[in-house]
Design brief:
This protein has 425 residues and is of the alpha/beta class. It has three domains: 187 residues, NAD(P)-binding Rossmann-like Domain (Rossmann fold, 3-Layer(aba) Sandwich), CATH 3.40.50; 88 residues, N-(1-d-carboxylethyl)-l-norvaline Dehydrogenase, domain 2; 133 residues, Rossmann fold, CATH 3.40.50. It has a six-stranded parallel β-sheet with strand order 3-2-1-4-5-6. The mean pLDDT is 95. The structure holds uridine-5'-diphosphate-glucuronic acid (UGA). Uridine-5'-diphosphate-glucuronic acid (UGA) binds next to helix 8.
Length: 425
């Protein structure tokens, strides 16, 4: 089948490359000429190792093609996957600029029995807009949300937990069923609005689960419990489940925070109050401040103290800094008059552009040098494996605040650290 992917971010590339691996011909379009130049030469412009190697393979097998102008795609296309970003404006509304442009281009260059599968996360009003714009028998609209995680983009796309196809159009339904025939996952056929709400409900449920465990962690800190045991104790109940119960300094990234805020805003315009989701966002907005409290409790006056922050990306295994809690935390530390040193394995160069007055490196040991305290802000797998004895000797103080609860606290205590986790005894 011939597939056109509009938008070459995580979702667009992972979807397109997964479909190319399933023997389709995939045409990628992005208006960003630089991105298309990179991709044509087999280079991703962000870090996703499996996707990088699969991209190279798809290019050498002549399965993928890249375009910065849609009129250059001279093939009959069976389906278009809309994978463009849907940023939220300051007033809380979705910025429709990119969607409008894509709709206009598709209508101009393609027109006969074509399926439009919307992968971008959109609210029902945006869907109504898209439906109105494609109001002709030639276009068959479906909502087909994506559930991949950054850092696992290709794996999640090739092995999805479920495939949601939201459409009232039989042609779109059978075409998408056919496109996904080789994917081993339950398929949910539903209407477009339910498909949209499945996506919002999934992300906001995950966000709520994290804020819930963070709230319990803060209680645990206060009364002397241990959040690891508590998470295990509740997570073994299959009705609750053990995933996404990792307490810490909060959730970030380009999806969970944005989707939660977007659905709250959209629902408010319909006079619906999403109290639980609002509270999950509020908890997350201030959760990182527990680090400041712990620093004050242990170091007293923070002015002029040196704090080494390990981790800048919004989570380990990615170079993505969007809505990273680490960046929020560093800005707060700077406001407190702290001298901040920071480290990340991948995003350290990018971070230099947004954090001024901070020493930034990719080296844990160099960053720890002379620090009164260390804060773990991102769950990089490398941190538990670091040489903590060496780090202890390089530091001026001995305080470590593990904002992601990933370090071996007993080992650190034996090395002479004062260890503070989030809700850990
Ligand atoms: C999230 C969802 O997990 C995906 O299913 C969804 O497809 C994606 O958004 C999207 O809408 O595109 P992602 O943003 O890649 O994926 O990141 P997550 O792995 O969900 O992590 C989000 C944040 O929550 C990170 O900052 C992470 O550190 C934090 N987190 C996660 C916790 O604090 N505790 C946990 O137990 C789990």
């Amino acid at each position: 089948m011939n597939i056109l992917i509009i938008g070459t971010g995580y979702v667009g590339l992972a979807t397109g490359i997964a479909l190319a691996l399933k023997s389709n011909k995939v045409y990628f379009f992005d208006k960003d000429k630089e991105k298309i130049k990179h991709l044509s030469s087999g280079q991703l412009f962000f870090y996703e190792p499996d996707l990088q190697s699969a991209l190279e393979k798809a290019i050498s097998n002549n399965r993928v093609y890249f375009f910065d102008m849609l009129d250059k795609v001279n093939e009959k296309v069976d389906a278009v996957f809309l994978c463009i970003g849907t940023p939220v404006l300051k007033n809380g509304k979705t910025d429709l600029k990119n969607i409008k442009q894509a709709v206009c281009d598709i209508k101009k260059y393609f027109g006969q029995d074509i399926v439009i599968a919307v992968k971008s996360t959109i609210n029902p009003d945006v869907f109504e807009f898209i439906k109105r714009e494609f109001n002709s028998n030639n276009f068959h609209i479906a909502v087909n949300p994506e559930f991949l995680r950054e850092g696992n983009a290709l794996k999640d796309t090739l092995n999805p937990s479920r495939i949601v196809i939201g459409t009232e159009d039989n042609y779109a339904k059978s075409m998408l069923n056919n496109i996904y025939r080789d994917f081993d996952a339950p398929k949910i056929f539903t209407d477009p609005i339910s498909a949209i709400l499945i996506k919002y409900a999934s992300n906001t449920f995950l966000a709520t689960k994290i804020s819930f465990i963070n709230e319990i962690a803060n209680l645990s800190d206060n009364v002397g419990g241990d959040i690891d045991d508590i998470a295990l104790g509740i997570g073994l109940d299959p009705r609750i489940g053990k995933d996404f119960l990792k307490a810490g300094i909060g959730f970030g990234g380009s999806c969970l925070p944005k989707d939660a805020k977007n659905v709250i805003h959209f629902s408010r315009s319909k006079n619906i109050n999403l109290g639980i989701i609002k509270e999950a966002v509020l908890i997350n907005d201030t959760q990182f401040l527990v680090v400041i409290e712990k620093l004050k409790e242990n170091l007293g006056n923070l002015k002029g103290k040196v704090v080494a922050v390990l981790g800048l990306s919004f989570k380990g295994g990615t170079d993505d800094l969007r809505d990273s809690i680490s960046i929020k935390l560093i800005n707060e530390l700077l406001r407190e008059g702290i001298i901040v040193r920071a480290q990340d394995y991948l995003s350290y160069e990018k971070a230099k552009e947004i954090l001024k007055g901070v020493f930034i490196s990719n080296d844990v040991y160099m960053t720890a040098k002379g620090a009164d305290a260390i804060v773990i802000a991102t769950d990089w797998k490398e941190y538990p494996k670091a040489d903590w004895k060496k780090i202890r000797n390089l530091m001026k103080g001995n305080l470590i605040i593990d904002g992601r609860n990933i370090l071996d606290k007993e080992n650190l205590k034996n090395l002479g650290f004062t260890y503070k986790g989030i809700g850990r005894k």
